[in-house]
Amino acid sequence: MHLNIQSATEACQEMRHLFPQTPLQRNEYLSNLYQADIYLKREDLTPVRSYKIRGAFNAMRRGLIRDPALNRFVCASAGNHAQGVAFACQYFGVTGVIFMPVTTPKQKIDKTRIFGGDMIDIHLVGDYFEETLTAAKSFSAKNAARFLPPFDDADVIEGQASVAIEMLDQSDQPIDMVILPVGGGGLSAGVTSYLTAASPDTAFRFVEPQGAKSLAAAVKSGKPVSLKAVDNFVDGAAVARIGDLNFAALADVNPDHILASPENRLCETMSQLLNLEGIVLEPAGALSVDILQDLRDQIKGKRVVCVTSGGNFDFERLPEVKERAMRFGGLKKYFLLRLPQRPGALKEFLGILGPDDDISRFEYLKKSTRNFGTVLIGIETKHKDNFSAIFDRLENSGMGYEDITDNETLSQFLV
Where are the extended beta strands (E) located within 30-174? Predict the structure, then answer.
């Protein structure tokens, strides 16, 4: 994959007709926390709240340059790419046909319609994205329409490179390190290709979700490979296979520079940014900030740019984010309690809890005439060390228990 610097620069200039540069903001909280100059490249502040508008715009622009008669574009997406394509269709005055899975939340469908207006049609097809993608490609082939891939496309990669062009234009000093989230690889391929040529002293770190490490798997194998399983929580970066063109640009990346962010820890970072800084990020958008804690020794005293790739967060997911964050921070646990079935047993258990402990879940899993019953307990506390005291008191009382907080199979089934 070779990026044409002049062509990428032209693409960036053309984008100014669509939206202004996204801010490059120094974040005082993160800078003080890590003793470094931490800047956020706020891609969550584009018109569609993600960088995806860049690649969609450029792919459409280039397609119309090559064939001015083109009047229909097709994509498959459940989120940011769909919104970017819809926005670009409105701008260019062309028809967009957007395929989305049947399971796509109504909020995302409605936002896509708002951006595209009368210029787009939305087709809900398939329970899984692969089915949606197949339908979109089939429609494109049968109707002589241009299919716009979300990341594995040279024009899309060129469009994403505009993030790097703006970054250099906005920074008054050399950038020591850029931290990039990785899903399919469009953003990371475009930014690294441009900065390697324009700012060769800039280092890179790449961060993937723990449950979707497609770049790490590809670098290890020497070619793109399909992951057997993917955790879809970080939906903006949960990609089972990195794109071929994207990997061509990233094949020589040092494996030690590819890092993984645990999904529950990521929720803690999202919550902190929301509560302390008022910054709303989707899970993928927070990856580059979350990984700073693993790079503390490498970034001290340096100028570091974290690309916050998107802010399309559905607030209906907030309870799940809070739940995951508390579990990661050790402030919430679930356990199975073997409670004696006698008068006063429940009161005895309540006496075990401290003033900072709160019951968030209490459910009998088995009721019978036996001497003991099994209860599912969820406890929230203000300090994680409180749980050691709770468990000590439980053992001294003779009540048996099993901590299932980290047992994913049990907790997903019961909680």
Answer: 37-42, 72-76, 95-100, 120-124, 146-147
Taking the domains of the chain in order of start, what are their residue ranges?
A: 5-50+155-322, 52-150, 330-414
Q: How many CB atoms lie within 10 A of CB 289?
A: 27
Say which residue the tokens 């994403």 belong to: 160
Of 176, 200, 201, whose CA–CA distance to 302 is shortest? 176
Full-model pTM: 0.90
- Check whether domain 5-50+155-322 has CATH 3.10.180.10, yes or no: no
- DSSP labels, 257-308: GEEEE-HHHHHHHHHHIIIII-----TGGGHHHHGGGGSHHHHTTSEEEEEE
Return the DSSP state at 35: T
Positions of the chain with pLDDT lower than 50, given as ranges: none
What is the end-to-end Cα distance of the chain in Å, rounded?
46
Q: Does domain 330-414 have CATH number 3.30.70.260?
A: yes
Pairing of strands 372-381, 357-366: antiparallel
d(CA 137, CA 36): 46
Cross-sheet strand order for the sheet of 120-124? 120-124, 95-100, 72-76, 146-147
How far is the C-alpha of 153 from the C-alpha of 147, rounded, in Å? 10
- Phi, psi (degrees; rounded to nearest 5) at 175: -95, 120
Helix, strand and coil in the chain, % to nearest 5: 45, 20, 35
Tally DSSP H helices, then E strands, for the chain. Answer: 18, 14
CA-wise closest residue to 96 among 57, 129, 126, 125: 57
The fold adopted by the segment(s) 52-150 is: Rossmann fold (3.40.50)
The H-assigned helical ranges of 67-105 are 80-92
Q: Which is it for the CA torsion 45, 231, 86, 179, positive or negative?
A: positive
What integer pLDDT is reported at residue 293 of this predicted model? 97
DSSP β-bridge partners for residue 306: 40, 179
